[in-house]
Amino acid sequence: MAKILVIDDEENIRKTLDEILSDEAHEVVSAGDGNQGLRALKEELPDVVLLDIQLPGRDGLEILQEIKSSGVDCEVIMISGHGTIEAAIKAIRLGAYHFLQKPLAMVEVKQNVRHAAEAKLQRDELQSLKEKEGNRYRIVGTGSAVERMEQQIAKVAPTPGRVLITGQSGSGKELVAYAIHRQSQRASGPFVKINCAAIPQNLIESELFGHERGSFTGAVSLKKGKFETAHLGTLFLDEIGDMDLNTQTKVLRVIQEGEFERVGGIKTIKVDVRIVAATHRDLEAMIAARTFREDLYYRLNVVPIRVPTLAERTEDIPALAQYFLELYCAENSMAKKSFASEALSLLCARTYKGNIRELKNIVERAAILTEAPVISAAALQALIEIKQEANMSLFTRTRPLNQAKDELERVYVQTQLELNEWNIPRTADLLDMQRTNLHRKIKQLGIER
């Protein structure tokens, strides 16, 4: 159902449109002249306006211009008893959705109103998604470390320069990448991300460059890669330090020449993409070890941005904790909750090896397990101690050494998985294990998410 505003000086037209559109489950508001219509526009905030082009006192095209400059987001369908091609073209150029001639064909009216309402709904849904995405990717904090980082973002974002974001795992590198995109001239384009550590080496080229049908076993159809998808937007290459040398060479070519071929293809595809890369690794050490290309490093590292650890921005912990709590409750349709000041002090006193990701994990656990609208320090401490006691019991209970080793290994692996939000490639990397071995270990130890 949509809200429809009819602006027409003919009462019988208003009445007829009211009846047929109400039968379509729309809410209809009517006005007999332009001034009444503009007042109704601001009061009712309609989704669709049916506007007569010939109104007493004021021209319908003039009213159309005022509607478009009013700030009210709606579609406008012009109607006229003396329509001309010139008038229709002018109306469309001024932003009208469609132009209908009297006598009105009611089937055509209903169809156009439905399509206009759907267009408005799609726009609303897209805006809602953008707002949710913007909220999810918001950089929270007012401390000096964050302020310096945001100043860097503001300087580099409007430029075409490539950015290399460095920082520990869990510090928020993806948030920085998204902020750069949102503040850039490419903000209306796509923001495409790929975690280079999460893609098996034999599939990374297909993910980045796409593939042609039949290019390898399982390639049953043509697939566009991330570079193609990110055309006229931003491509975020997360954990670039985990990319193999062969793929690094091909990425370097795209940076230098702006072109590539899909896997199994011969057609050269040109793209216009801004690359933002991130890593927790020491790329200069990798260059010395010949595991990362020096020329690619300097191409990516035009503007370096380092993301501070949570230990460097402890003053932001209260704001971060409350933000994560509100976000989790909103996304999971839970009643609003907040932290007592003592609980926030408790969070500030902790150390976080997993940085912001670990803090977020604790906050979400509190949101789930605490029923009170205000989470007290005692409730929070109890949640933390439950986990600590479970870990300490490994050392206070007597049992065979092999069994104790297994339990210690299970707790350690599970803790690392939780700190990394069950990101298998990242956890395997930190544990210095092959991903397949980590999967096997999870199954062997009976670890469940």
UniProtKB/TrEMBL annotation:
Residues carrying 4-aspartylphosphate: D52
Record has Nucleotide-binding as a keyword: yes
InterPro entries, sorted: AAA+_ATPase, AAA_lid_NorR, CheY-like_superfamily, Homeodomain-like_sf, HTH_Fis, P-loop_NTPase, Sig_transdc_resp-reg_receiver, Sigma_54_int
Transmembrane segments: none
CDD domains assigned to the protein according to its UniProt record, in alphabetical order: AAA (cd00009)
UniProt xrefs under Pfam families: AAA_lid_14 (PF25601), HTH_8 (PF02954), Response_reg (PF00072), Sigma54_activat (PF00158)
Matching PROSITE patterns: RESPONSE_REGULATORY, SIGMA54_INTERACT_1, SIGMA54_INTERACT_4
Domain of life the protein comes from: Bacteria
Any one GO molecular function term: sequence-specific DNA binding
UniProt KW keywords: ATP-binding, Nucleotide-binding, Phosphoprotein, Transcription, Transcription regulation
GO biological process: phosphorelay signal transduction system; regulation of DNA-templated transcription
Span of domain Response regulatory: 3-117
Domain (Sigma-54 factor interaction) ranges: 139-368
Keyword Transcription regulation listed: yes
PANTHER family listed in its UniProt record: TRANSCRIPTIONAL REGULATOR (NTRC FAMILY), TRANSCRIPTIONAL REGULATORY PROTEIN
Protein name, entry field: Fis family transcriptional regulator
Species for this entry: Candidatus Raymondbacteria bacterium RIFOXYD12_FULL_49_13
